[in-house]
Amino acid sequence: MSETLEVDVLIVGGGPAGLSAALRLSQLQKTHGGEPLSIAVLEKARDAGAHTLSGAVLDISALRELIPDYEAKGVPFATPVHRDQVYFLSKRSKIRFPIVPPPLRNHGHFIVSVNALVRWLSEQVEKEGVDIFTGFAGRDVLLDGGRVVGVRTGDRGVAKDGTKKAEFEPGVEILAKVTIFCDGVRGNLTKELVRKLELSVDREPEQYAVGLKELWEIPQGRIEPGTVIHTLGYPLLQDQFGGGFIYAMPQGRISLGFVVGLDYHDPLFDPHMAFNRFKQHPFVSDLLKDGSLIRYGAKALPEGGWNTIPRTYMDGGLIAGDAGGFLNSMRLKGIHLAMRTGMLAAEAAFEAVRQGDTSAASLKRYQDKIDASPVRAEMYPVRNVHQAFGYGLFAGLAFAGLTVATGGRWLQDLHGRAGHERMKMLSWHYGVEVPASRTSNATTIDRKLTFDKLTNVHYSGTAHDEDQPSHLLVQTDVCTSICGPEYGHPCVRFCPANVYEIIREPGQPVRLQINASNCVHCKTCDIMDPYQVITWVPPEGGDGPQYNGM
Amino acid sequence: MILVVAEQRDGTLNRATLETIAAAQKLAGDAPVKAAVLGQSAGAVAQDLATAVSEVLLVENPALGTYTPDAFTVAVQQIVAAVKPVYVLLPHTYQTRDFAPMVAVRVGASLITDVVGINGTGSSATFVRPMFQGKLSAEVRPQGEGPRCVTIQIGAFRADAVKRGTAAPVNPLAVEIDPSTIRQKAEAPFKEAKQAVDLGQAERIVAVGRGIKSQENIAIAEKLAGAMSAEIAASRPICDNGWLPMDRQIGSSGQTVAPKLYVALGISGAIQHLVGMKGARTIVAINKDADAPIFEVADYGIVGDLFDIVPALVSELEKS
């Protein structure tokens, strides 16, 4: 028998969206008075911000509205952006774009650690007396017919074989009048909701990318703090979506990363190797020379844009932030949209609870608020840009340019395909000469500039109790029977944390070993697996990466 | 004056106490180091420590017979009030982690935990503690008045580095503990059905990695462990396969050990494993791959097939 907790509004996920929602709710309560609403925030990380990962350059528009005196309250901006540079990389050289395309102009924005920002936001929320339950993951959505009535948190203390350990604690059922789902990109609860309540039936398939990021310390004076660099081209091919970023912060700290569209064709391609190759480009390796790696992380990004966002409201539920796909892939920004959708969801939930009607018809006001807000104004015109990159880099760039020029006034919308469907079988991609399973873009690993995945994982600080059931549910019969021959086990390569390993031992059948404790919660496997047989569910609450300073 | 709070159970000293005394001697410079032994009848342990410190305070009380955080907190609080040390040093054990924060709050002390190094002596000393899972080290300085509490990571200082002298006096020190203020009631200690191993106390460890190839071959490593009276341990893949129990796993998701001798058989030396054993005094690695990272930390490395080398080692050990 699990315990039950009843609240007015439950927020699942303590990231920028969830915490902005919590803060907005307590602000509304203050302004409107009356019987105070009970609010709870669930966060699977042990500390707020430990699982949040981003570049990041912050557009402060939403923050300015949420916390006008953010400076007085000590917001932890790293540095204002002073200059933008965009480069096209070839294997050995670089070409600087003569002008910085308008969507990539970041003047007036700030380089931040989203981990520090979220920690700071959580302090602001806790000052308002809202409880953030860190270390508790939402495991299942509680549905009453088509109505969301709350969330069940995961059990703790279950052994690897499924038995209860001495410290077993069953999950808690949290019942709420409105549940706001802010469980991030490819959130496990939002995924369940979208499927069960058919929230995506008339939408374009969601598109994703995976971002790999490292924090470095380099000798000071090499690059001016506040410099924001974006790159296109090498090491990606013309038909691959993605690029690199380098953000310079004070004291020689560098945030650098590489984003790869999760819609590449080559099953032997490895995004982590692409990141290594990016670092080996003289432009980057000169910058990092004699520096040292501080932290590593990876996270998927919802790139699909406006037409891929599922229905955001339902009976008793709302979806905000990355969980809903609120990210502007042309500006490479989503934190401000997460914050703003969180705020709007809070307003909708507050009004609905006060009116005593939290049905879908009443909560539709959330979508109306989004439509009337800067979220739509920003996202609607660029709704086709990511889909255009499906036709290749140059088509995408041309389309992006036209979008800027015309404000996105197209007669017909472009259609995309789910990224995992675009992966080609070995025999299609390589012809009859199917190569033995290997990585097509492998490069040298020196553990100074370039790293193997296992070493990188160490720098993510990820930790999971080993004695628990795997939180990656895989139909492993598919692996050896069809996935191996057809795709050469792509999970081994697309996972940036060495979770998946194919073990070949003499005299033994080939088998998949799941190193679940390496997982950095990026969700790439749940997205990119060609057979969609991997389901990511939260491990025991509190487990996962430790993205301090990321 | 520096006070070391010794840890003993039923008359057996926890080895980490000696490491803490070694740390105290480094921190003290010329100043005296005293040790407090808490328990119900702990005279023998107190005598053991007499040659290592300038005075042993034997703190005996029926309420200290079995550990409870409330009784130990009250006792240490009274000891600190009586002897007024500049520093209180404790070994960073599970027991210390349980009650040291309470002691620090009660005596108004700053608390620096898990210290791996000490720079300087006396009140101007700074302390080194790990951050980012040991990737970075922070040098910290305690602030404020009053005693400073410091806990010493196991394996960071060497027990055999303790300077011994003539036996110092063992003086009883009475503490008053009102049994009604103890909120915890300890049950008799028990071992879980599966016997938990504390590899942290082992002086010699033979650890196996993926190079052992199959579960049957674990016996080869166990034979070597038997011949050198070592504990058997493993890297993650071995325990993940269930070839050895999980409590034998060394590394970031297992135990951290600092034995005198660590023999790594077929372990490549991923950083996750290294963080769990790099504190070992002498590391011997046997691996087929000469480029394996384990050789970067090994004191003695043998590039070769463990299935040839280990039996040879066993037969040599059995000869002697």
List keywords for this structure.
heterodimer, A: 550 residues, alpha+beta, FAD/NAD(P)-binding domain, D-Amino Acid Oxidase, Chain A, domain 2, 3 domains, eight-stranded mixed sheet, 24% strand, B: 320 residues, alpha/beta, Rossmann fold, 2 domains, seven-stranded parallel sheet, five-stranded parallel sheet, 9 helices, 17 strands
What does this structure look like?
- The complex is a heterodimer of chains A (550) and B (320).
- Chain A is of the alpha+beta class and 550 residues long.
- Chain A has three domains: 4-68 and 117-205 and 305-379, FAD/NAD(P)-binding domain (3-Layer(bba) Sandwich); 79-109 and 208-302 and 424-550, D-Amino Acid Oxidase, Chain A, domain 2, CATH 3.30.9; 385-419, no CATH class.
- Helices cover 29% and strands 24% of the residues of chain A.
- Chain A is built from 18 helices and 24 strands.
- In chain A, the strands form six sheets. In chain A, strands 1, 2, 8, 9, 10, 13, 19 and 20 form an eight-stranded mixed beta sheet that branches. Chain A has a seven-stranded mixed beta sheet with strand order 6-5-15-16-17-14-18. In chain A, strands 3-7-4 form a three-stranded antiparallel beta sheet.
- In chain A, helix 1 (16-32) runs parallel beside helix 3, helix 1 packs across helix 7 and helix 7 (335-355) runs antiparallel to helix 9 (365-371).
- Chain A is globular.
- Chain B is α/β, with parallel strands linked by helices.
- Chain B folds into two domains: 2-181, Rossmann fold; 199-319, TPP-binding domain (Rossmann fold).
- In chain B, 28% of the residues lie in helices and 24% in strands.
- Chain B is built from nine helices and 17 strands.
- Chain B has helices spanning 16-28, 43-49, 69-83, 94-106, 218-227, 236-240, 271-277, 294-297, 306-319, and strands at 2-5, 8-9, 12-13, 33-39, 55-60, 87-91, 110-115, 117-119, 126-131, 136-140, 148-152, 170-172, 204-208, 231-234, 261-265, 282-287, 300-303.
- In chain B, the strands form four sheets. A seven-stranded parallel beta sheet of chain B has the order 7-11-6-1-4-5-12, sandwiched between helices. Chain B has a five-stranded parallel beta sheet with strand order 14-13-15-16-17. A three-stranded antiparallel beta sheet of chain B has the order 8-9-10.
- In chain B, a hairpin with a 2-residue loop joins strand 2 (8-9) and strand 3 (12-13).
- In chain B, helix 3 crosses helix 4.
- The longest helix of chain B has 15 residues, at 69-83.
- Chain B is elongated.
- Chain B starts with a strand and ends with a helix.
- The interface between A and B is medium-sized, with 20 and 21 residues.
